[in-house]
Amino acid sequence: MDSSDNPAPAGAPAPPPPRVFDWSLIPLAEGNEDSIVLQASRRMQREPALLFTTAYLLVSALGLWCSYWFYRGFGISILDYLQASDFLVAGVRDPVYIALLLLGVLLVLLVTWPETLRLRNPETAARLKDRNRLWRLLLGRSVFTSWEATRMRPLTAMTVAVTLFMAVAAAGYVSQRGNDIRDRRAGDAVTVHLIGDVTALPGQARLLGTSSAFVFLWWPAQRRAEAVPIAAVRRVQAAGIRRGAVPTPPARTAR
Questions:
Q1: Around Cβ 24, how many Cβ atoms within 10 Å?
Q2: Contact 131, 139 (CB under 8 A)
Q3: Out of 89, 128, 217, 254, which residue is the most buried by the measure of CB atoms under 10 Å away?
């Protein structure tokens, strides 16, 4: 009779159920107790006001960074024209920045997913690596899927990676948008009326943006950019729309 057929003695604890494989993308917090990011997040949980201050600074930095790279292609030193109230607005005007942030977080999570699976399922990962080479490649240690080479805690390294991705991607996005405007493939065509002038300025400009004190224009014909004080502008009108035009009433159908 096989010993495995003997029933378990009375009162013996039942064997633990098999552990379900955890496929989560979220990295473990264990081992990151001294991470700067984890400590900062816990501090913000205790002091919510610090969270809003940090978010304000980050959004302001993003707005400054993107504004610099966008107007740099037009030869405008944008930092000389912005005021403190313009910093926060510059970072939230374009929803593409939010998409870039989400894309950066997703890419970092996907790249480090094998390391997360190995840490969340150590016993199962060890068995899978012994089965075939594919599992060894997926769940094995690698400089491409681990943050050990950075000598930083995983959460800190992931935050740095997302920040660098945001900086590079946002700069590339606004630079390409500026190139499209200069090549006449994009941009809002406008006519500009200055205070004291009877007619609008000759030609059509491309509206680059505004601040609390200036309107930034690009004149394709002259290939030049211009910062016009808002106090000198009477009206900026979209091209192709005649002021005071009466819309044609819809035709009535006969009954």
A1: 12
A2: no
A3: 217
